[in-house]
Design goal:
Blueprint (H helix, E strand, L loop, with lengths): L7 H21 L6 H8 L3 H8 L2 H25 L4 H17 L7 H9 L4 H27 L9 H22 L3 H15 L5 H10 L1
């Protein structure tokens, strides 16, 4: 949590420390990243770390908050533009292009944190569960628009389909990370979209709906 008395300069310093810690934890994991590692990477003092974060637990929580804001902000913006099948495919292509730019490295920052922390700290597990729920809501909103636009059947189980899509993202990113091959994510997302399309509404049915109303 950001101290209430923090100055603009303090916010900038804290943000720089969090960004560096996020990069270190992404590379080494939380257990493999010490406060001394963060100090060395940021040229900060021990007193600064304790002032802004209290202890390592507070720093890791700040990293979770930081990575969540970055990932969910990008996903929400991209998914908000989904109105039809082509939009959904463009979103999938955007995801694959990001992995290609990183040469398949990194994976999902949220998934990486969840794999490392969910079984070791209940507070972190709950925080990461909330992040995935927010991501699920962003995907669900996109699928709801497909349904409302007459592209998905009215009785399609959006909760189940949202979970399928999120699982494809996480699984595809993990496979791409371990194989250094973005095609793994592309295949996973194409499979999830193909599953969605089994619930699509035919052109003839949409035409009848327009005629009725």
């Amino acid at each position: 949590m950001t101290p209430p008395s923090i100055t603009d300069q303090g916010r900038a310093t804290r943000g720089r420390i969090v960004a560096a810690a996020a990069a270190l934890i992404g590379e080494r994991g939380a257990s493999g990243t010490s406060l001394d590692d963060v100090r060395a990477a940021t040229d900060s003092s021990k007193s600064q770390l304790y002032h802004y974060f209290g202890d390592k637990h507070g720093l890791v929580q700040a990293v979770i908050d930081h990575q969540s804001a970055v990932v969910l902000g990008a996903q929400a913006q991209a998914l908000d533009g989904v109105q039809g099948w082509r939009d959904l495919e463009r979103w999938a292509g955007w995801m694959v292009a990001m992995v290609e730019r990183q040469d398949g490295r990194g994976g999902c920052p949220i998934g990486t944190l969840a794999a490392a922390l969910a079984d070791t700290d209940e507070q972190f597990r709950a925080a990461l569960s909330d992040v995935f729920e927010s991501w699920r809501e962003a995907i669900g909103g996109a699928l709801a628009r497909l349904r409302d636009n007459g592209l998905l059947a009215a009785d399609a189980d959006l909760k189940q389909l949202t979970t399928t899509m999120l699982a494809a993202i996480q699984g595809g990113l993990l496979l791409a990370k371990t194989s250094r091959d973005s095609a793994q994510l592309r295949i996973a997302l194409e499979g999830a979209i193909a599953q969605l399309r089994t619930h699509s509404v035919s052109d003839e049915h949409r035409a009848r709906r327009r005629e009725r109303g």
